[in-house]
Design brief:
59 residues
Length: 59
């Protein structure tokens, strides 16, 4: 319900990072990642966001 286009969703960050939070933003074959191209190291910045890379993209 956070995004009408189903590309954004909210939930507990630990469950989102583990891919365990039930959300329409993550499909059955999708894997969540903590870092995308040109982003600072997530181990240093500890962002409160996860990403689902496009199926034709590269992480």
């Amino acid at each position: 319900m956070a995004c009408m286009m189903r590309v954004l969703d909210i939930g507990p960050i630990d469950q989102l990072r583990a891919g365990k939070w039930k959300t329409t933003a993550v499909g059955p074959a999708d894997k969540v990642v903590r870092q995308v191209k040109s982003m600072a190291n997530p181990e240093l910045t500890n962002p409160s966001i996860v990403f689902v890379p496009h199926s034709k993209g590269k992480v």
